[in-house]
Amino acid sequence: AKGQRLLVFRILQAHPESTSGEIAKIGKIDRYIPSRRLSELVKLGLVRVVGRRKSRCNGNMMQTYTAVKQS
User: Residues 10, 4: contact at Cβ < 8 Å?
Assistant: First the structure.
């Protein structure tokens, strides 16, 4: 799980304001992995929800996420 969180976090650093589906596509990983790890990363304060928009993957309204800058 730690390795998956790191992968999702790094994808978000490179692709801010992405949906979970977009993260899965970019990372070539199962679509359920980002969904699980994003909630963990939000709880850890490393990622935040920044809005909602239509996903580039399926056109559904989805939450978008951004990695929080580390000081």
Answer: no
